[in-house]
């Protein structure tokens, strides 16, 4: 199983977030792909993410175009501590409590039949 996307989702199903890392650029890579997007190298390796980061920006989605989608929810851009940014949702969080720069941690969850890395607030800084 060497398809990077399949490896990524296999780790997620096991509750872990793994990222590709390019040792030449010393950067993490997201989303999964066959080449480093900076140097086009293929020497990348897998490294486990701590699954923690902070909200870069967010929006509260209140209207859905789909009948089977629960609204409202918090759609957010998350910057992981490893430096990559991903679009996701913040769950277990009051809409009024969401803030930019809020610390969050990854929680794998099923979304539209696919396991996805969602995020929840880290309530106390001491717990990190
Ligand atoms: Zn690279």
What does this structure look like?
This protein has 128 residues and is mainly beta. The chain folds into 2 domains: 4-48, no CATH class; 52-121, OB fold (Dihydrolipoamide Acetyltransferase, E2P) (Beta Barrel), CATH 2.40.50. 8% of the residues lie in helices and 41% in strands. The chain has one helix spanning 4-13, and strands spanning 18-22, 27-29, 45-48, 52-61, 73-80, 85-90, 103-111, 114-121. It has a 5-stranded antiparallel beta sheet with strand order 6-5-4-7-8. A 3-stranded antiparallel beta sheet has the order 2-1-3, covered by helices on one side. The longest helix is centred in the N-terminal third of the chain and has 10 residues, at 4-13. Residues 22, 24-25, 36, 38-39, 41 line the site of zinc ion.
Measure the end-to-end span: 33 Å
Give the helix level as a range of percent: under 10%
Note the total helix count: 1
- How much is the average pLDDT? 93
Q: What class do helices, strands and sheet pairing give?
A: mainly beta
Key terms:
128 residues; mainly beta; OB fold (Dihydrolipoamide Acetyltransferase, E2P); 2 domains; five-stranded antiparallel beta sheet; three-stranded antiparallel beta sheet; 1 helix; binds zinc ion
Write a compact overview of the structure shown.
With 128 residues, the chain is mostly beta strands.
SSE diagram, text form:
Layout: H1 4-13, E1 18-22, E2 27-29, E3 45-48, E4 52-61, E5 73-80, E6 85-90, E7 103-111, E8 114-121
Bound molecules: zinc ion.
Zinc ion binds at residues 22, 24-25, 36, 38-39, 41.
């Amino acid at each position: 199983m060497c398809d990077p996307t399949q490896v990524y989702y296999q780790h997620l199903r096991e509750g872990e977030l793994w990222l590709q890392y390019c040792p030449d650029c010393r950067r993490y890579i997201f989303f999964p792909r066959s080449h480093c997007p900076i140097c086009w190298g293929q020497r990348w390796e897998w490294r486990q993410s701590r699954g923690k980061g902070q909200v870069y920006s967010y929006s509260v989605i209140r209207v859905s175009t789909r009948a089977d989608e629960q609204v409202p929810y918090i759609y957010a851009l998350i910057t992981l501590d490893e430096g990559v940014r991903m679009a996701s949702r913040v769950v277990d969080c009051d809409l009024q409590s969401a803030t930019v720069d809020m610390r969050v941690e990854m929680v794998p969850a099923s979304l539209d039949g696919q396991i996805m890395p969602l995020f929840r607030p880290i309530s106390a800084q001491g717990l990190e």
